[in-house]
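Quick one: structure for this chain?
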Amino acid sequence: MNRSMTGLSLAAGALVVVAVLPAVGEARQIGPTVDLCAEINSPQSGDELILAPGEYQGPCAIRRGGALGAPLVIRAADPAQRPRIVYGGSSSNVFEVRASHVTIRGLEFGPSQREVDAVRIFGGNDVTIEDCLFSRLGGIAVVANHFSVVGLVVRRNVIRDSQATAMYFGCHDGVGCTVTGLLVERNLIQGVTAPDPEIGYGVQVKLNSVGIVRNNVIVNTKGPGIMVYGSRTTSGGSVIERNVTIGSRTASGIVIGGGPAIVRNNIATSNEQAGVDLEDYKRRGLVRDVVVANNTVYRNRGGGIGVPDSEFSGVMIVNNAAEAPAGTQVYPAAQAGLRMAGNVDCTAGPCFTNPEQQDFSPFAGSRLNGAGVFLDDASMPREDFFRVRRSTSSPTAGAIERPAGPLSLTLEP
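Got it. Here's what it folds into:
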């Protein structure tokens, strides 16, 4: 029996209507004719709300969550036919999350009006946004910048033709809120524009917010594909690994505005400025304890890997493979606060199998083979971009250890 329906029973010879509600942990499937927001926030809907294909009317403030290990799940019935959440107004956001332990899976959002975000997290820990499609948004796809959030997961989403920064985590001043325990992985971002003076980032992790950004493909953004602002404390730090950033129109592929941070096994190509750029943002003096290891940087118009012109410390640039146009700097000059080893200048000779076809593998006889140095340091990658085990004696420089073929610019490189 469908427990979300009203049941009938006989008591003392009379017909009695009995409301049979979903038990805790039960799932309920709904169609697009219902009041979606009422269903989400009703305890009678159970812990899993399954949306049949179709268009559902937004907006909705999600005020009901689940429990640790048993989140409220709002998901598509059929991942191949995502239910689309429609909202044409401008006075709210499509979804506003105001509860903890919430998972949103397999839905579609967009288009939306200017500055109308798809999923804005106002508060709540243990929130997951996964397998969703965001297209032609006038605002941000996923944003958390109101109250501090712990345990935010954003994975396997597709964001296309965004008119604003695609993902934004934390408060700009690093005081009003932070996002910690952040995981951003296996997302595909294709096309970010933004009106001036907005920057138009792919993924932005603000001051004092900390997380892992890995296995994302970010193409054709206005601003940096990825920017991490660092932290005023030296405990913990962000890891940026195995990402592909291609074609920022105004900025570098990856920008590190402060540490601690580990930047490893990334591929950055065809960006307007550098491939990987360490920048002393607002002269905060936070560029310290930054490791840039085993990245592949190719034909970024402003140069290869850069460091700030102000004072910095504890920066290590190791085992990278970089090529840059004539007249630009491939690597920074030796200076105080900087350690460099095992890097290869691919401007001096060919390194990659077929970079024009996105094959950045070393070919037989490549200058990258065995050019790296082994460092017994936890920040150094023991696997390459494709999760291939690296040599412990003479690792290959760059993101790819051995021939592997062209990149697949999909959710999972």
